[in-house]
Design a protein that fits this description.
Layout lengths: L2 E6 L19 E6 L6 H17 L4 E6 L1 H8 L6 E7 L5 H11 L4 H7 L1 E2 L7 E2 H9 L8 E6 L7 H10 L3 E5 L9 H16 L5 E4 L2 E11 L3 E8 L2 E8 L12 H15 L6 E5 L4 E5 L4 E2 H6 L8 H13 L2 E3 L6 E4 L2 E4 L4 E3 L6 H9 L4 E4 L5 H11 L11 H8 L13 E5 L2 E9 L1 E9 L7 H11 L6 E6 L3 H9 L3 E13 L13 E4 L6 H11 L6 H7 L15 E5 L5 E9 L5 E9 L8 H15 L4 E5 L3 H5 L3 E11 L1
Parallel strand pairs: 1-2, 1-3, 3-4, 4-7, 7-8, 23-24, 29-30
Antiparallel strand pairs: 5-6, 9-10, 10-11, 11-12, 12-14, 13-14, 15-17, 16-19, 17-18, 20-21, 21-22, 22-23, 24-31, 25-30, 25-31, 26-27, 27-28, 28-29
Length: about 650
């Protein structure tokens, strides 16, 4: 009887898609399951019944699941019956996805609980019962699993799928530019190669070595000497390495299995931190060693995580190796960080030669090249991601955040003709440094991500050359940021009288106020109601009340900002219907803070608490969407009355 491959499709898919996989699993019967329902409790039962029926027939079952089909499969409780699973663009955290959809649809949790079901313009209706079920039934999954993920997936972010893969010891392959739905010829070809590669580098699911049984979970890597697999014995993870004899045109091998034994002893003698050698089978050419749980230096570099903090440890290893006449293989895939400690997880070592030591060869792979180029329109999301990363742990630069950039870049006064003058420093597909002018030339923001601080002088130099006006250049520096202050003063910047203050409010301490009698609240969309929006801000920022002058001087342009949440863009109307005040608060589901920009009141309506009531409502809504604190750049007493407190002070430094 043939072994089975069971295919579970995603939303909008069908069992017919299984035909694509038949040539990829020769000798197996590929079966597509048409799910009749799309809730985890119903679809999970259908999948469980199908797997149990195949298992009762004595078949080995391989699972191929796409998108939400992977989540339903994990909800089915069948992992013990699955010999191997292939997940393609899996939904691995459905609660997170639902909460993101709520943000995209401007729906709060209280609203969903009250209404039960809320239709939305995209995807499935939002359901309170569905959300509760997902929270009450966390998935459990222990089958050997490989995951294929597209870097352009809009439903699941990389951090979420990577965390799942690590927690469940699953393999993870990322296709740069791949979508959630693998459908183009290029994407399908990548998918096919991925499945074939997993099969070609696979081995039997259980290995017996010296009467000890090891369950193979997944392939960890393929080097010039062998294939390394994550395996399990009595619940303990280990690494099982199978020696191969594939040709290598740049390296000459002797007896590989004896070299593993010999090199292990040499490295232990040199004091290099390596995993323990647990067992060795000379005849089968297999070794078993301890598993070091953590990310490789290569994975950290790929994810954009700075690895400079581990340079002292690898250099210490290099010094020990050289002292014993050795070189180790300094390529980043051979090093794992676990608990802050660096481990060399390979046993390969060779007689010392200067050209192959860390400083002459290895360091260039640890510290990749950074490229500087001009801003392009398609870089908007990457700049926002840079500003989010910049303020993730150290909020010294929170005065410049993603929301300020988004507000500025669509502001009518922003000089878009010069936008290509913005300088961006890229490393492995992400921005690690930026020089951005503030509305016009003459003032700029300069910063580099943690771990890339060495770029800061170059970024400053670029800004001085490319972003200055006839009076020179000004930059706002946090008073406590001595490193950036010293770097600026070194190249001729000096403190000026201009400054700005950043205020912060912990939203648990928000002081709620209400609109005065007769005033009403409404949502105001700058894209759909551009004239109302611009006229209100014209008056609120003291340009006058002459409507004809407004029309002559302020062209009506719909301002489309992709991350603006209409429920947080609020206006107040006076008893006569005229708009009297406005405020906007910015929130993203991948941050825990809100940003206030702008707030204004028409002069005739000031002093009545209208703006305070608007802002308190917007901040309460932001808190319901997950924000824990709010920031605003201001030194007005107005904000302190709402509970805002001074957090940072920035002094402008200028260079002629």
């Amino acid at each position: 009887m043939k072994d089975s491959v069971l295919y579970i499709h995603g939303k909008g898919g069908s069992a017919a898609e299984s035909e694509h996989y038949a040539p990829l699993f020769p000798g197996c019967e590929v079966i597509g399951l048409d799910c009749k329902s799309f809730t985890p409790w119903e679809a999970g039962k259908e999948i469980r019944d199908a797997v149990e029926n195949l298992h009762c027939e004595g078949r080995s079952v391989t699972l191929v699941a796409n998108s939400i089909g992977a989540y339903f499969s994990m909800s089915a409780g069948v992992d013990a019956l699955i010999s191997r699973a292939y997940f393609i663009s899996p939904i691995v955290d459905l609660e997170r996805l639902i909460r993101n959809m709520m943000v995209w649809a401007n729906v709060t949790e209280d609203e969903l609980q009250s209404r039960g079901v809320i239709p939305i313009a995209f995807g499935e209706d939002l359901s309170w019962d569905y959300l509760c079920y997902v929270r009450e039934h966390p998935v459990s999954w222990n089958a050997p699993t490989e995951i294929l993920y597209g870097s352009a997936d809009k439903l699941t972010d990389y951090e979420t799928v990577a965390a799942f893969a690590k927690a469940h010891r699953a393999g993870l392959t990322v296709m740069d530019g791949g979508d959630h739905w693998f459908h183009t010829p290029e994407q399908l070809a990548f998918l096919d190669r991925w499945i074939k590669q997993q099969q070609e580098t696979g081995m039997e699911q259980e290995i017996v070595l010296h009467e000890k049984h090891y369950r193979i979970l997944r392939l960890l890597g393929h080097g010039k000497g062998g294939y390394s697999y994550l395996a399990e014995r009595e619940g303990r993870p280990v690494v099982l390495k199978q020696i191969h004899h594939e040709p290598c045109d740049y390296y000459q091998f002797g007896n590989k299995i004896e070299a593993e034994r010999r090199d292990y002893a040499r490295l232990k003698n040199a004091g290099i931190r390596i995993p323990e050698l647990l067992d060795i089978d000379t005849d089968a050419e297999r070794i078993v060693k301890a598993y070091v749980d953590g990310q490789t230096i290569a994975e950290l570099i790929h994810d954009g995580v700075p690895v400079t903090e581990y340079l002292p440890q690898v250099r210490e290893m290099a010094a020990k190796a050289q002292a014993h006449g050795l070189n180790i293989d300094y390529y980043p895939t051979n090093f794992v960080v676990s608990g802050g400690e660096l481990w060399y997880i390979d046993y390969e070592c060779n007689d010392y030669m200067p050209e192959w030591d860390f400083e002459h060869w290895g360091v260039k792979h640890w510290l990749p090249t950074v490229e500087c180029r001009a801003y392009r329109e398609e870089d908007f999301d990457a700049v926002c991601a840079f500003l989010i990363a910049l303020n993730q742990s150290d909020r010294t630069h929170i005065n410049w955040n993603w929301a300020r950039f988004e507000w500025m870049i669509e502001h009518p006064e922003f000089d878009k003709s010069a936008i290509s003058s913005i300088g961006l420093w890229w490393e492995r597909g992400r921005i690690v440094g930026a020089a951005i002018y503030d509305m016009y030339f003459g003032e700029a923001f300069c910063a580099a991500l943690p771990g890339c601080e060495a770029l800061y002088p170059k970024i400053l130099d670029y800004a001085c050359r490319e972003l200055k006006d006839e009076a020179g250049l000004g930059i706002a520096l946090c008073d406590g940021n001595q490193r950036e202050i010293e770097a600026a003063e070194t190249v001729g910047f000096a403190p000026a009288e201009q400054s700005e203050t950043l205020l912060r409010l912990e939203l648990d301490k928000l002081r709620r106020t209400v609109l005065p009698e007769g005033y009403t609240l409404s949502e105001l969309d700058p894209a759909e109601q551009p004239e109302d929006f611009q006229w209100l801000l014209w008056q609120g920022f003291d340009h006058g009340t002459d409507y004809e002058e407004f029309k002559r001087n302020d062209p009506i342009v719909p301002q489309r900002r992709p991350n603006l949440n209409k429920r947080l863009s609020l206006a107040a109307a006076a008893p006569d219907g005229a708009l009297a005040a406005y405020c906007c608060v910015w929130v993203r589901p991948d941050t825990d803070y809100a940003y206030v920009e702008p707030v204004c009141t028409v002069p005739a309506h000031r002093g009545k608490g209208i703006a305070a009531a608007l802002l308190s409502e917007a901040l309460a809504r932001a808190k319901a969407l997950g924000a824990r604190e709010a920031y605003v750049i201001s030194d007005l007493p107005f904000y302190e009355k709402l509970g805002f407190e001074k957090m940072r002070h920035y002094t402008f430094y200028r260079k002629p």
